[in-house]
Amino acid sequence: MNILLVEDDKTIASGLEYSLEQEQYNTILCHDIASAKATWAREKSSIDLCLFDLSLPDGTGYELCKLVKQEKDIPVIFLTVMDEEVNVVMGLDMGADDYITKPFRIRELLSRIKSVLRRYNKESKTNASATITLPENILVNTLEGKVYKNNQEIIVTALEYRLLLIFSNHIGQVLTRNQLLERIWDVAGDYVNDNTLTVYIKRLREKLEDDPHQPTLIKTIRGLGYKVGD
């Protein structure tokens, strides 16, 4: 398992590198964006996960996250002293899978890494299957393009199905409203605005949740977005 670690504080970087290698992770360490980009261009085929400090001397981790996500589907975790909602949402919108606020305990970071990797492995297996099982006894048959609850077919519109499929392919991951809008806006050739997204979320809950007023399938993560599954 190869991890690209980009951290400008050399003391923190050395400590993280040591701790990760104690856990049998091979760490590729960079201290700025320029060296990280060069390393990524040279080593990206072998890199399995990225840890990016948000504030770097020649830019931000956002730039690196965007680059990585455009070229390879691997987890990206931000390390940041900034835990304000706007910074978290911005990172998630760019495709980051998680963030951890400094200072943090190494065990917490290792736990986050393992959690993200488990999610990616689960998604890989799910994408290879014709059916996706979700909470609330929901089954999505991707070959038929149909949705079932308690073995009974639930009639959904094309856009509702697309929205549910997006959630199904990102189980356990918080998706911001912007991420959802970017993925569904052109399903029927129509623009989907923020208010319309709210309506479709509401309709899916009414069709699929046991109690739409206390949803356990499509959970609202206050200030960030939505999540399906743990």
TrEMBL record:
InterPro entries: CheY-like_superfamily, OmpR/PhoB-type_DNA-bd, Sig_transdc_resp-reg_C-effctor, Sig_transdc_resp-reg_receiver, WalR-like, WH-like_DNA-bd_sf. It comes from the Bacteria. The keyword Transferase does not apply. Pfam families: Response_reg, Trans_reg_C. CDD domains: REC_OmpR (cd17574), trans_reg_C (cd00383). Keywords: DNA-binding, Phosphoprotein, Transcription, Transcription regulation, Two-component regulatory system. SUPFAM superfamilies: C-terminal effector domain of the bipartite response regulators (SSF46894), CheY-like (SSF52172). Its main location: cytoplasm. The keyword Transcription applies. Residues 2-117 form the Response regulatory domain. Transmembrane segments: none annotated. Residues 129-230 bind DNA. This is Response regulator transcription factor.
